[in-house]
UniProtKB/TrEMBL annotation:
Pfam families in UniProt: Rhodanese
Gene3D superfamilies in the cross-refs: Rhodanese-like domain (3.40.250.10)
Name the record gives this protein: Rhodanese-like domain-containing protein
Originating species: Candidatus Desulfacyla euxinica
Highest taxon in the source lineage: Bacteria
Residue ranges constituting the Rhodanese domain according to the UniProt record: 145-197
Length: 199
């Protein structure tokens, strides 16, 4: 009888533990987030890229041959080699601050090894193509017809819906080509774009 109780206890214990072990195994199998939500606001195409990380550069170690990057609230460590290519900066040493980067990698055992690191290029707009807030406010007060301008909010549509500059129309940057018909036909009309700025 004691033998039967022992078998029954083990069997019941197995019934309790098995779902827990299965649940843990299922959780570990779930793919982790590898693309920053901020990056996805403008770069929806990143979702379709395999073996890709996107987030903010945090630090690098030439001795350990690693870079650390922040993706949402987590940190990711990626190794690099002499064969790793880098774009938009001269070298990995020149990665500074929290510049956004995209890393294409391959798995070597448990390590992620970068094959290419793409830094977000610095946006430089000629001074004669910039508009000040005072002039913009004056135009907005006049309105598009009287002011003869078109103001374009190139941020993601959800941000436009939350708040935008009066008289602005929404043409998110990734959809610029698709929604180009919303732009003025008169090529001489003043065309003003604004976004979230370089991050």
């Amino acid at each position: 009888m004691k033998h039967m109780k022992t078998i029954l206890a083990i069997f019941i214990g197995g019934l309790i533990l098995f779902p827990l072990l299965y649940a843990n195994a299922d959780n570990s199998a779930k793919p982790e987030t590898m693309i920053s939500k901020k990056c996805l606001k403008c770069h929806q195409g990143f979702k379709k890229m395999n073996d890709t990380l996107a987030g903010n550069f945090k630090s690098s170690s030439n001795k350990a041959k690693t870079i650390q990057m922040k993706i949402n609230n987590g940190m990711k460590l990626v190794k690099f080699t002499k064969d790793t290519t880098i774009k938009n900066v001269p070298s990995i040493k020149k990665l500074k601050g929290t510049i956004p980067i995209r890393v294409h990698y391959k798995r070597v055992g448990e390590d992620l090894v970068a094959t290419e690191i793409v830094a977000k290029p610095e946006m430089k707009v000629p001074k004669d193509q910039l508009i000040g807030t005072k002039k913009l406010a004056k135009l907005v007060a006049m309105g598009p017809e009287k002011g003869d301008y078109t103001l374009v909010d190139s941020r993601p549509g959800n941000l436009y819906m939350t708040a935008h500059i009066p008289t602005a129309i929404s043409i998110p940057f990734p959809k610029m080509k698709k929604l180009s018909a919303k732009l003025p036909k008169d090529k001489n009309q003043l065309l003003i774009f604004y976004c979230e700025g370089f991050r």
